[in-house]
Amino acid sequence: MSRSSKVVLGLSMLLTAATVAGVHVKQQWDQQRLRDGVIRDIERQIRKKENIRLLGEQIILTEQLEAEREKMLLAKGSQKS
């Protein structure tokens, strides 16, 4: 085998190995991104449920506060009369 054919063979083997390694690394990176996306979605769903729960509590507290204010206004109005 001539020297130039050996060089071409070596370069093609090196390029092939680099391509295979590059594709493998890219696939691992893509898989990790997919896993991270699922984890972020789950965390978002948990935060959304917590926010909805807190909003419900705030609505109840607001209604209670408004009812207390209404009672106080009625009580002040009846004392003046």
UniProtKB/TrEMBL annotation:
One Pfam family named in its UniProt record: PET117
One GO BP: mitochondrial respiratory chain complex IV assembly
Family designation: Belongs to the PET117 family.
UniProt keyword annotations, A-Z: Mitochondrion, Signal, Transit peptide
Coiled-coil ranges per UniProt: none
GO cellular component, one term: mitochondrion
Keyword Transit peptide: yes
Subcellular location: Mitochondrion
InterPro entries recorded: Pet117
Annotated source species: Rhinopithecus bieti
Cleaved signal peptide residues: 1-22
Protein's recorded name: PET117 cytochrome c oxidase chaperone
Domain of life: Eukaryota
